[in-house]
Amino acid sequence: MSTLLSVRNLSMRFGGLTAIDDLSLEVPAGKITGIIGPNGAGKTTLFNCLTGFYKPTTGTLRLAHPQRGEMHLEKLPSHRVARDAQVVRTFQNIRLFPKMTVLENLIVAQHNVLQRASRFSLAGLFSLPGYRRAERAAVTRAATWLERLQLTRFADHAAGDLPYGTQRRIEIARALCVDPVLLCLDEPAAGLNPRESAELNELLLYLCREQGVAILLIEHDMSVVMNVSDHICVINYGRKIAEGTPEAVKNDPHVIKAYLGEDEEEEAMEAFTEARAS
Amino acid sequence: MAYALQQLINGLTLGAMYGLIAIGYTMVYGIIGMINFAHGDIFMVSAFIAITAFTLLAAADVTSIPLALTFVLIVAIFFTSAYGWAVERTAYRPLRGSTRLAPLISAIGMSIFLQNAVQLTQGARVKPIPPVIEGGVELWSTPAFTVQIGWTQLLIIVTTVALMIAFTWMITQTAFGRQQRACEQDRGMAALLGVNVDRTISFTFMLGAALAAVAGVMVTVYYGVVDFFIGFLAGIKAFTAAVLGGIGSLPGAMLGGLLIGLIEAFWAAYLWAEYKDVATFGILCLVLMLRPSGLLGRPEVEKV
């Protein structure tokens, strides 16, 4: 099992607040790694560091890119994390381009391929054959993912007008159009009904097993995390408190304490006991 | 009736120029949410570049008018885009991520700087050029009044319409346009999908400046005079046009420009010519009070 991403001694401080405190973890290639922890544990901050949105205070994020070799994500600006390192994320609160059609949303994600083909927009401006070919290829790729995620009939709708669950799937489809080596999903099951989250499970497993995409998954819905993750890492107060297989994590005393020890975390507690029962 | 028709032609010409400048305001606002108050002065700079280019051509004894116009347009677009790029790079980009007010102040500073730079290097006096294109077509002749459309006016209207079609196509159909719209809707997300946001913003500024350059060349040809202060008034009127149409909306900027041009022409013809600026700014006040999102702009809904 080779390591795709290794996070070493990562810390992120905002003034006096330490959101991530000396966190180290490994994300294996071609597997699903779940990240769980109570609200405010630093999960989303980790994603923000990964995708160049925050510059970590200390620590390294080393990506072993299958084609391009070793890359340090903490040194790349956001657009190069997607373009060169092919690490892409989705958001807890969906961030589609609401006024564009679904298809356009997916084409924007492939814009680097198009940009190269368009030679700094010039060939694109005049629609030269090379560019038209690239554009057709982009549409085909978009269509393939739309088909796989059962979104084809929405292709020409404005993304902002569609129902929530559909928008979630579109966001995942768009991320896939970047051709990611690492896909970071921030609570993809939030707001989905049980049937939809079962479909999500299936999709995640398909991406990982069939397409070989490594997935880093932040999720509160235990029915998703516990069922699809190969490996789970539990964070609390910016520190890793446990990791291992879903089974091992469920029974870890530190984890139980982190979830059950806090009064305001009722939701998480319920979810957790449910998961233990199942 | 004939008189009104003539005013319509004059208004359209004026409106075309305001529209071209207004697009620059609206695009920059769309992508970084800031009013580029130096945009009017970029337009002024382009008029000076045009004058310089015309002078050079005259010195080189070029007499073919189409050739001369093409050359001047290309030179003006090239150098003005460079100005647009430089202004963004030096005055706005370093302030990105700071408060909303900072780039606004910086823009006003840039505007004063450009005016003074041109005043120092080109002199404060009005610079004239001899008429480039003369004559026109008589459309309709009554005993009292002859309606005429000048070749220059025709050129301005036709060029503007062609540019606006090309521009709309570019924004809706090309890779750059898609990128531009993506940045406009969510800059952070666009970056996370690999779009180089800084470059897109630079390009937006250059594009706005290029359109202003076309307007600058036209003003030079149409009026035959420029001075270092023309950017202020033209800029504010184009800004009014952008607000009237709905700031951030491209068709809005075009429509707003046209309306402001027409209103100004008719006001000057039928009411008081000396108060035509009052009309424009009265409209700005009214729009801001009654319909702040403009004619084609969508009101911003704060999501809770």
3D structure, described in words:
Chain A: This is ABC transporter ATP-binding protein. Chain A: Pfam families: ABC_tran, BCA_ABC_TP_C. The complex is a heterodimer of chains A (278) and B (304). In chain A, 41% of the residues lie in helices and 24% in strands. Chain A is an alpha/beta fold and 278 residues long. The radius of gyration of chain A is 19 Å and the shape is globular. The two termini of chain A are 29 Å apart. Chain B has 304 residues and is mainly α. Chain B contains eleven helices and four strands. In chain B, a hairpin with a 4-residue loop joins strand 2 and strand 3. In chain B, 48% of the residues are buried. At the A-B interface, helix 2, helix 3 and helix 4 of A face helix 6 and helix 7 of B.
Q: Which keywords apply here?
A:
heterodimer, A: 278 residues, alpha/beta, Rossmann fold, 6-stranded mixed beta sheet, 4-stranded antiparallel beta sheet, globular, B: 304 residues, mainly alpha, ABC transporter involved in vitamin B12 uptake, BtuC, two-stranded antiparallel ribbon, ABC_transporter-like_ATP-bd (chain A), L-isoleucine transmembrane transporter activity (chain A), nucleotide-binding (chain A), amino-acid transport (chain A), BCA_ABC_TP_C (chain A)
For the largest sheet of chain B, list the strands in their spatial order.
1-4
Helical proportion of chain A?
40-55%
Q: Largest interface by residue count?
A: A-B, 35 and 21 residues
Low-confidence stretches of chain B: none
**Apparent shape of chain A:** globular
User: How many structural domains can be distinguished in the coordinates of chain A?
Assistant: 2
By DSSP (H or I, 4+ residues per run), the number of helices of chain A equals 12
Q: What proportion of the residues of chain B form beta strands (DSSP E)?
A: under 5%
Q: Unreliable stretches of chain A, pLDDT < 50, 5 or more residues? A: none
Radius of gyration of chain A: 19 Å
β-sheet strand percentage of chain A: 15-25%
Main β sheet profile of chain B: 2 strands, antiparallel
Overall structural class of chain A, as computed from helix and strand content, comes to alpha/beta
What fold name stands as the CATH topology of the largest domain in chain A?
A: Rossmann fold
Number of E-state strands of chain A: 10
The CATH class of the largest domain in chain A is identified as Alpha Beta
Helicity of chain B, as a percent range: over 70%
